[in-house]
Every structure is written in structure tokens, then in C-alpha cells.
Amino acid sequence: MDNCIFCKIINGDIPSIKVYEDDVVLAFLDISQVTPGHTLVIPKKHVANIFEYDEDLAQAVFSRIPKIAKAIKDADPEIKGLNILNNNGEVAYQTVFHSHIHLIPRYTDEDDFSMNFINNGDKYTPADLQALADRIAKNLGE
């Protein structure tokens, strides 16, 4: 895609600090380095988000995540954990519309990254949750 920054990185038009590359994915250090080692894993095929993946692409891309994540962790004995994030759509904080997975090493619970989830569980009855699950399952087509 002509105006996609990640496609330009894949094509070598924009430099990156590569961590891993094969015929399906490219992994490189995110320029923001939320924490040291913050890596992006992107499919070489341009897809905007998870909703554009087919099963084969998903299997190929996501099967590489553990290998890259383990390499990041093994690179620094101070790493205690790792967040794996994938934002899909502007409302979900996606800013580059070429699918990418963030691998963010965690050193302490006070490092430069945080996630806050609000517990809305008390807003739903078991019947509400079952109805939601049923609507989702209906769309799986199985």
C-alpha cells in the first residue's frame, strides 16, 4: 500500500531496527520504546486490522509471537513479564492502519506502561451475559 508506513518499512523505504524477519512477518523495535525492548510484529501482507485476517494469515502471524516474545525476555534478565497488545480500529487506539502486535516487556509494576480495566461486571446479570455469548456464538458459523 503506497501510503502505509509499515508497508514502507517492509519494502525498505523507511529504516527500522529489525528483530526478526521471515517470509510472513517483520518484527522491529517500536520507535516509542514504551519500555526497553518494545517490539512490533507485523504481517508482510497489508491488512488493516484483525478483522481482515483469514485463518491462514492469523495462524502464520500469531504462531511466531511466542518465539519472538521468548527472545525478548531472554535478552534481558530484568524482564519479569510481557504485555501482548493488538489494537483494532481507531476507537481501540489503533493509529497505524496496518495490523501490528505490540510486545511490551515489563520490568516492574511501576515501569512506563500501564493498563487500567474498569470492572463493569455488576452491570450485567447472568442472563445478560448468556444472551451476549449466544449472539457472539451465532456469528461463528460453526
From TrEMBL:
This is Histidine triad nucleotide-binding protein. It comes from Ligilactobacillus ceti DSM 22408. One of its GO terms (molecular function) is catalytic activity. Residues 5-115 form the HIT domain. InterPro entries: HINT, Histidine_triad_CS, Histidine_triad_HIT, HIT-like, HIT-like_sf. Transmembrane segments: none annotated. The active site is at H100 (tele-amp-histidine intermediate). A motif (Histidine triad motif) lies at residues 98-102. It comes from the Bacteria. PROSITE patterns: HIT_1 (PS00892), HIT_2 (PS51084). GO terms for biological process: nucleotide metabolic process. Pfam families: HIT (PF01230).
